[in-house]
Amino acid sequence: MPEQGPRMNSFSLGELCWLFCCPPCPSRIAAKLAFLPPEPTYSIHTDANGASSLHLTERADWQYSQRELDAVEVLVTRTSRGNRVGCMFVRCAPSSRYTLLFSHGNAVDLGQMCSFYIGLGSRINCNVFSYDYSGYGVSTGKPSEKNLYADIEAAWQVLRNNIDKVSKVASPVLVIHGTEDEVIDFSHGLAIYERCPRAVEPLWVEGAGHNDIELYAQYLERLKQFITFELATS
User: Fold this and answer.
1) For tag attachment on the chain, is the N or C end more exposed, with fewer CB atoms within 10 Å?
2) pLDDT tens for residues 23-42?
3) Which GO cellular component term is one of those annotated (predicted)?
């Protein structure tokens, strides 16, 4: 093995000679060339109630107000390879039926990308869900091709609607949804109701949004009926 010398772009001169004279494992080369994780530009704080919030450093170059920052949802999930991966949901277009799963570039993290996501989603009328690769941001582990596949699979599993689980529910299910929900589109409630094997008569609250549905009289009335009669006789 050639002796170590000055370093060029994370390779020493000795490693460069070894690379061209006696090539090492291709995956090692790919990892050094393809992944350039920056110093983390954000952190995720969890309060006593279990709610997570995003905290950015100056290097994140945040371009919006605190209101937009408070609307960015963050969480950490675990991959099939055991790494913890940071995820971010940017609700740019509440009325949109679509969410873009975005894999960012190789030299940035979620903190640096979140301003871009707001601008992008607002322009294309689409929400954005993104994640950090292993070894980036708050994500643990080291960046590699195998970890990358596990990272995006874990992100996809987080993003998918409860629709894949609802068919396994064995107890009676009451679905209540506001027709003007600006956060979770009304179509989601319909899809869950249609796929739930033991769904009772749903309640579609005409004109209700995401945060005011409990103010409608029929909300409490339908819940009482469900608990008193439909659950009791199941």
Assistant:
1) N
2) 555 566 666 667 899 999 99
3) endosome membrane
Q: Please name which of 74, 93, 94 lies closest in space to residue 85, comparing C-alpha atoms.
A: 74
Confidence check: pLDDT of 228 > 80: yes
Q: In angstroms, rounded to a whole number, what is the distance separating the alpha carbons of residues 75 and 84? A: 10
The two tokens of residue 22 are: 């006696």
List pLDDT tens digits, range 190-227.
Answer: 989 998 999 999 999 999 998 889 899 999 899 989 98
From the list 100, 43, 92, the residue with the least C-alpha distance to 68 is 92
Q: Map tokens 């509440």 to a residue.
A: 94
Q: Is the pLDDT of residue 79 over 90?
A: yes
Q: Which two tokens stand for residue 102?
A: 């975005």
What is the C-alpha separation between 130 and 126, in angstroms, rounded? 13
15: confidence class by pLDDT, cuts 50, 70, 90: low
Q: What secondary structure does DSSP assign to the chain, as a single string? A: -PPP--EETTEEHHHHHHHHHS---HHHHHHHHH--PPSP-EEEEE-TTS-EEEEE-GGG---S-HHHHHTEEEEEEE-TTS-EEEEEEE-S-TT-S-EEEE---TT--HHHHHHHHHHHHHHHT-EEEEEPPTTSTT--S---HHHHHHHHHHHHHHHS-THHHHTT--S-B--EEETT-SSS-HHHHHHHHHH-TTB---EEETT--SSSGGGSHHHHHHHHHIIIIITTT-
pLDDT of residue 2 exceeding 50: no
